[in-house]
Design goal:
- InterPro entries: SGNH_hydro_sf.
- This is SGNH hydrolase-type esterase domain-containing protein.
- The chain is α/β, with parallel strands linked by helices.
- It folds into two domains: 195 residues, Rossmann fold; 65 residues, no CATH class.
- The chain has nine helices and eight strands.
- The strands form two sheets. Strands 2-1-3-4-5 form a five-stranded parallel β-sheet, sandwiched between helices. A three-stranded mixed β-sheet has the order 7-6-8, with no helix packed on it.
- Helix 3 runs parallel beside helix 4.
Length: 327
């Protein structure tokens, strides 16, 4: 079994304890990396070491130094740890364990927090980290250090912050990292594989469902487009028929001369010029049609002036009776 233990100054002191005490784990490969005053952001620089070591379990004990750094520090710590765990899973780490953060009897004045405020934030953060276990489908375990939830003076050092020798003896980080309670690494790997397969099946099902929905939507839009086109054609046809009927009605309302669409005027006027006895015959014909039938309904106007005509014939000339009749 290979385990990589990573964290803040608590892990620095735990590493010293392991080096000076026989914890009977000689048959396992253990790598411990602690960072004094370490914060969550300091974890990421060890990703290369974790990748090279390729552990079966990564145990994280960190977060207490981040509390009080900002107004929303608890939420920020939760998201940062969650992101780090996601990166570990992307590196094919089978199991990640996150340790319970300890309460303190003292806090640094520069934090701007009282002991009570700090410990309240610790409890809040522990609850959020515990909920991550459900989020990661038990591939991540939140480890509650038995008997260390509310450490007392007998297990804390003189600063009231870190575990003393007795506290580290009670701390079962290594033992539980090597063999997590109620967790079989092989079963976890198999479950992870099955989870990945199930996730892929769900993704394929979702894609197929989405594809069908898009296809149905396209068919619906095509149907709507055809319906709109049909309505438009019917509307255009109806409008054309209405205009045709209106034209017919207008034609029926016009005088007879317009019913045949013919404009024809023939005016014949006979005038008598009393001054010189000249007869003028004026006629106009504005018809361009070949068939005389178009002139059947044309009204002719003839005006005749019945005045006495004076002869302008040469002396001795006579007018025949036929001509006289025409005149």
């Amino acid at each position: 079994m290979k385990a990589f233990i990573l964290g803040s100054s608590q892990i620095v002191r735990f590493k010293s304890h392991v080096q000076t005490h026989d914890i009977k784990l000689q048959h396992h490969e253990i790598q411990i990396q602690g960072v004094n005053r370490g914060m969550v952001s300091s974890l990421f620089k060890y990703l290369i070491d974790i990748c090279r070591f390729s552990p079966d379990v990564v145990f994280i004990q960190i977060g207490s130094n981040d509390i009080g750094r900002s107004e929303h520090s608890v939420v920020n710590i939760e998201f940062a740890i969650q992101h780090f765990i996601e990166v570990l899973f992307s590196m094919n780490i089978p199991l990640v364990m996150v340790g319970l953060l300890f309460n303190r009897n003292k806090v640094l004045a520069k934090r701007g927090l009282t002991v009570s405020q700090y410990n309240d934030s610790v409890i809040d953060l522990n609850c959020k980290l515990q909920h991550l276990q459900r989020f990661f489908n038990n591939r991540m375990i939140f480890w509650v250090h038995r008997g260390l939830q509310f450490p007392t003076h007998d297990i804390l050092d003189k600063h009231g912050v870190h575990l003393n020798t007795e506290g580290n003896r009670r701390n079962q980080i290594l033992q539980n990292a090597i063999q997590p309670p109620d967790v079989n690494i092989e079963d976890t790997s198999t479950a992870t594989s099955m989870t990945d397969d199930n996730a892929n099946d769900e993704i394929r099902t979702s894609i197929n469902t989405l594809s069908k929905a898009v296809s149905n939507l396209k068919d619906h839009l095509t149907s709507v487009s055809d319906t709109i086109k049909s309505f438009k054609e019917q509307s255009d046809s109806s409008l054309e028929n209405q205009q045709h009927i209106t034209v017919q009605v207008d034609i029926m309302d016009q005088p007879p001369i317009h019913q045949t669409g013919i404009t024809a005027t023939i005016t014949e006027q006979t005038q008598n010029d009393n001054s010189n006895g000249t007869i003028s015959r004026i006629g106009t014909n504005n018809s361009n049609y070949d068939s005389p039938s178009y002139l059947e309904n044309v009204t002719f106007t003839q005006t005749t002036c019945n005045n006495t005509f004076q002869s302008v014939l040469p002396l001795g000339a006579t007018v025949s009776d036929d001509i006289k009749g025409k005149i």
